[in-house]
UniProtKB/TrEMBL annotation:
It comes from the Bacteria. It comes from Pilibacter termitis. GO terms for molecular function: metal ion binding. One of its GO terms (biological process) is DNA replication. Pfam families: YabA. The lineage of its organism: Bacteria, Bacillati, Bacillota, Bacilli, Lactobacillales. Keywords: Cytoplasm, DNA replication, DNA replication inhibitor, Metal-binding, Zinc. This is Regulator of replication initiation timing.
Amino acid sequence: MDKKILYDALTDMEKTLSETLRNVSEIKATTQEVIERNNTLEMENTRLRDRIAQLSKNEKKTKVKNRAQIAMEKLYNDGFHICNLSYGQRRENDEECMLCLDMLDTLD
């Protein structure tokens, strides 16, 4: 084989390998960026899931509280005591009870 042809072939191979190495380096850098972005998004996703869970808990508590408040108000408006002292007893002449009213205020 002619030395010039061999030298030219090696030079071409060197250029090809250099270009391939540059491409691999770019792919490596891009992969690193993608991994870092993925980690950031996973952490943000975890924080958001925790926040959603917390908000869901608070919403459930609020709904239960609202149902309890509605039930207590209904009992009181139907003429029954809802205070600890006379719970379930009929209010005489539908007179207002300060303890019951205080109980309703604390449910808000």
